[in-house]
Amino acid sequence: MSDSKRVLFLCNGNSARSQMAEAFLRHVGHPRFEAFSAGARPDSDVHPQALETLRRNGVPVDGLATKDIAMFARQTFDFVISLCDRQREQPSVVQGADMIYWTFCDPAEPAEATARAHAFDDVFRGLERRIRLLIAVNSRRTVSAPRLVSSDASHST
Q1: Cα-atom radius of gyration of the chain, to the nearest Å?
Q2: How far apart are CA 26 and CA 139, in angstroms?
Q3: Catalytic residue numbers?
Q4: What domains appear along the chain, each with residue ranges and CATH number?
């Protein structure tokens, strides 16, 4: 049995925010965390600018693909993290997990290319901060019993 935490990131289209979150958590959280992403109405492809943003930040993009949340209905997760307000409105098909809401603006919305690039960078930075905090808060270190230290000088090395 694995001790890793299973995390599912949700966003309506599963093409940008949730894909970046999945890839980043896989990159920095493995093996303590298993990351997945899905959407209620997934787009056909991962947004090219999401892939570009990840690559530019040294995050592998291998295996990223949009997925429907229904494919995870019978799986268990420790955390389900919604990244957009539209997903918050959808009833979760994943039961028993702690539900977390991190609302980020859709970085694909700006029509102008420079504004869109900045939006992707801003979302990536926000996800990076929150995911690092999630890892820190949920990473338990095994603490060994305190070791007795002798004050007797004859036992020093």
Answers
A1: 20
A2: 15
A3: 11, 84
A4: 5-138 (3.40.50.2300)
| CA 42 – CA 29 distance, rounded (Å) | 25
pLDDT tens per residue, range 12-53: 899 999 999 999 999 999 999 999 999 989 999 999 999 999
Q: Are 5 and 26 in contact (CB under 8 A)?
A: no
Query: DSSP H helical segments within 40-145, as ranges?
Result: 48-56, 85-88, 113-138
Dihedral, CA of residue 136, residue 29, residue 46 and residue 129, to nearest 10:
20
Distances (CA, A) of 100 to 16, 67, 97, 106: 18, 20, 9, 18
How far apart are the C-alpha atoms of 116 and 113, rounded to whole Å? 5
| Owner of token pair 């960078």 | 121
CA end-to-end span of the chain: 42
Q: Report pTM.
A: 0.84
Distance between CA atoms of residues 144 and 157, nearest Å: 22
